[in-house]
Amino acid sequence: MTKTLTLLCATITLFSTVPAAQAGDVISFHSPTKSVWCAIIAPTHFRHASPTKAYLRCDIPNNTAVLPPEPEYCKDTGDWGAGFGIEANGYPSRACPSDTSATPAGRTLQYGETIRAFGFHCTSRRTGMTCMSSKGHGFTVRREAQRLF
Questions:
Q1: 81 CB neighbour count, 10 Å cutoff
Q2: Cβ neighbours of residue 103 under 8 Å, at least 6 residues apart?
Q3: What backbone phi and psi angles, to 5 degrees, belong to 92?
Q4: Which of 2, 70, 85, 102 stands the most exposed, by the fewest C-beta atoms within 10 Å?
Q5: Which residues, in sequence order, are CB contacts of 44 under 8 Å at separation 6+?
Q6: Nearest to 83 by CA among 50, 41, 113, 42
C-alpha cells in the first residue's frame, strides 16, 4: 500500500508541474480561458537595457475590475490596469503597457499546472493566475479582481 501511494503522489507531482524551456529569452503562456496572458523574460533579453534582472508580466486584456486612479505617468502612454509586472528581486506593481504579453506562440497553462523559469513560478487556477518570485512577492490576477502581495 505504501509503495502504491508513493507512486501515485509522484505521478500527480510529475504532471502538475510544467518545466519551462529555458533556451529562449521569453516564455509565454496564458490561462485556459485566455483571459490572462503572461511572459517570463530572461535577464539576457535586456542585454543593453534595464531591467537587468528577470522580469515577469501578466496582462488582462478585458479587465473588468474596479481600478485605482490612473497615475500621472501612465496618462496617454498605455492601457492602465491591464498589466502587472515584477522584477526577480522586486515588488509587484500595476503597469500601463503600450504593448502586450499575449502571443499566439504562448502555451496554455491548464488549471492546476505550474510553470517555473528564471526565479519565478506561476500557477493557473480557476480562481486566477498566481505568479510569484523566489522572494515570495507576486500577484493573483483574473479578469474580475487582482491582488498584489
A1: 18
A2: 28, 37, 39
A3: -75, 155
A4: 2
A5: 25
A6: 41
Read off the amino acid at residue 52.
T
Total domain count for the chain?
1
Q: Phi first, then psi: what are they for 86, rounded to 5°?
A: -160, 135
| Torsion angle, alpha carbons of 81, 86, 87, 88, to 10 | -170
Give per-residue pLDDT as tens, 63-121: 889 888 888 878 777 778 788 999 988 899 988 776 677 777 799 999 999 999 999 99
pLDDT tens digit string along 24-63? Answer: 688 999 999 999 999 998 886 555 445 468 999 999 988 8
